[in-house]
Design brief:
This protein has 296 residues and is mostly beta strands. The chain has a single domain, classed as 6 Propeller (Neuraminidase). The protein is built from 1 helix and 26 strands. The strands form 7 sheets. Strands 1-26-25-24 form a 4-stranded antiparallel sheet. It has a 4-stranded antiparallel sheet with strand order 2-3-4-5, with no helix packed on it.
């Protein structure tokens, strides 16, 4: 039933969602909002949920990474963890529709990451395997998580429910593997690095098969977001070394560039096809952005 339902959702996206988003890039159906938390010198935006909330992190004037959540009304709430009264480097990258945040932090003065999940004001530490440093990079509405842990090589992981199982993921021939996104049907996206250090986007299906994403003309790519309709977003680097956002389905990806930007990545997509991302302006400063339906 899960596979049949997902195929039906894929058909709907192919016939409806992608043309809608294409028109949105021309400004007909969508509007762009650029944002920066107060005190940010460099803003990174990641997951967006169905309410339009976005999580990410920014770099402050002291070069510390500070996690934040931007709410649909535009309010931005920073959250930086502390160890022994000292500020920690804090990164948020995943967000579900129950406002559970996935991320990791570096306890000061350590350079080893610790995975975290935040919900209802509570912070829970997470380790995929005991004694392995962990980055939690995504969480879905079923409470399933994904990310990477510091084995040799760096290895992606999923912790799934019904039945409960923990899955290590290392793409054949890769030097590192990251799981960056996970939808409610256990389709996961990510990136792996090859022997040259280039990253390549992939899709992991529920049966465990891995599908490379993107045309061979992309020098590098990463899949940062996947919604429950199967729409995938990410980053693609062309032969000139320019970063673009991409969105769509395997074999039918389209590029997106923030107007006037020198660098664009798409990092999240919700079930309405609204997207989040990051761009660098002509002065070299990094900003977060969201692509919302007009009228919201």
């Amino acid at each position: 039933m899960k596979s049949a339902r997902f195929l039906l959702l894929m058909f709907v996206v192919l016939t409806l969602a992608v043309p809608l988003l294409a028109r949105g890039n021309d400004g007909e159906n969508f509007r762009l909002i650029s944002f920066d938390p107060r005190g940010s010198t460099e803003t990174h935006a990641f997951a967006i949920n169905n309410s339009g909330a976005v999580v990410g992190y920014y770099i402050d004037a002291n070069r510390f990474a500070v996690g934040y959540e931007r709410f649909p009304d535009g309010k931005i709430v920073p959250l930086s963890l502390t160890t022994g009264g000292l500020q920690d480097q804090t990164y948020f990258e995943g967000l579900n529709n129950f406002n559970v945040i996935a991320g990791y932090y570096y306890p000061n003065p350590s350079n080893v990451p610790t995975g975290i999940l935040l919900f209802g004001g509570n912070v829970v530490k997470y380790s995929f395997e005991p004694n392995y440093a962990t980055q939690v990079l995504t969480v879905n509405d079923r409470g399933e998580v994904g990310g990477a842990y510091y084995a040799n090589p760096l290895t992606g992981f999923l912790e799934l429910n019904n039945p409960h199982r923990k899955v290590s993921i290392s793409v054949s021939g890769s030097t590192s593997t990251y799981i960056l996104c996970l939808n409610n049907f256990e389709y996961a996206g990510g990136a792996y690095s090859d022997s040259s250090g280039n990253f390549h986007a992939f899709l992991r299906k529920p049966d465990g098969t891995i599908e490379d994403l993107g045309p061979k003309t992309w020098v590098q790519s990463s899949a940062y977001g996947i919604n429950n309709w199967g729409l995938i977003v990410g980053s693609a680097v062309d032969s000139h070394g320019v970063f673009h956002g991409f969105y769509g389905q395997p074999e039918d990806f389209r590029l997106f560039d923030y107007p006037g930007a020198t660098f664009t990545v798409l990092t999240g997509v919700n079930d309405d096809g609204e997207m989040s991302g990051r761009y660098i302006d002509q002065s070299g400063k990094s900003h977060g952005f969201i692509l919302l339906h007009k009228g919201e």
